[in-house]
Amino acid sequence: MSSPSSPSPAMSPGSPQAPRGRRLRGGYVASLVSALVTLVVFGVLLALGPWVRHPAPDFISEVGTNLEVQLEVDEEDLDVIGVYGLSFDGTCSFTTPSGSPGMSQRRHVRSVDYGAEEWHLVQTLEVTESGTYDVSCDNRNTEFGLASTYVADSAGMRQFTWAVIWISLPVLGLATTVTIAVVTRVRDRREKVAASGRH
Question: How many Cβ atoms from other residues are within 10 Å of residue 196's Cβ?
C-alpha cells in the first residue's frame, strides 16, 4: 500500500519569487493627466477666443436696412449710443426729445469687428437728454442696429486680458506637466541607485 504523499514544503521567506511587473509611478500618471488637461484647456481657449475677444453688440433696437427707430432714454441711461453695421455703407441722423438735431460722429474704418457676424462700429450718437429720440438711417445696402459702445470702448483691455489668459494657462499647464515628470524621474533614479547599493 502506497504511503500518502507528503505535503509540499512551504516556501521560506528567503525563497525567490516570481518577478512582478513594474507599475507606473503615480507621478507619471499625474504628469499624463496634467498634459491632457492642458490640451483640453488649449482647445477650449481656441474655440471661445473669437466670442470672448470680440463679443457681439447687445442691440437695443431692431436690426435691419433703412433703419427707423424711436428710442426712449431715461435720465440714468444718458450716454453715447453706437450704430453698428455689417459694413460702413450708410449713415444715421437723429432728433433729440427737444426737437433739435442730435450730434453724431462717424467712426473710421477699423480692422476690429464684433461678434460672429462681424459688426463694425459705424457711428456714435450723443444722448444728452432724457426722452424719445427719433433715429433715421440711410443704409439700404447693409444692416444697422443700435447698441451700447461698451464692446468697442473695452476692446483694448478685453483683448489684452484674453491674450494674457491665452498664453499663461497653457504655459502653466505645460510647466506643471514637465515639473511633475522631472521630479518623478529623479525620484525613480534615486530609488534605483539605493536598491542596487543594498545588493
Answer: 8
Looking at residue 24, its pLDDT comes to 57
70 membership: H or E segment, kind and range: strand 68-73
Query: Other C-beta atoms within 10 Å of 185: how many?
Result: 14
Instruction: Give residue-wise pLDDT tens across range 17-45.
Output: 444 445 556 778 888 888 899 889 888 88
Per-residue pLDDT, averaged over 159-187, amounts to: 87
As a whole number of angstroms, the distance between CA 107 and CA 164 comes to 28
Q: Do residues 86 and 120 touch, judged by C-beta distance below 8 A?
A: yes
Instruction: Give the burial class of 44: count Cβ atoms within 10 A of its Cβ; 0-12 exposed, 13-18 middle, 19 or more buried.
Output: exposed
**Single pTM value for the model:** 0.60
Residue 87 burial by Cβ neighbours in a 10 Å radius (0-12, 13-18, 19+): middle
The letter for the amino acid at 38 is T
What cell does 7 get?
Answer: 505535503
Q: What is the DSSP letter of 120?
A: E
Distance CA 29, CA 165 (A): 26
The two most distant CA atoms of the chain are separated, in Å, by 128
> Which long-range contacts (C-beta less than 8 Å, at least 24 apart) are formed by 176-183?
176/34, 176/38, 177/31, 177/34, 177/35, 177/38, 178/31, 180/27, 180/30, 180/31, 180/34, 181/27, 181/28, 181/31, 183/27
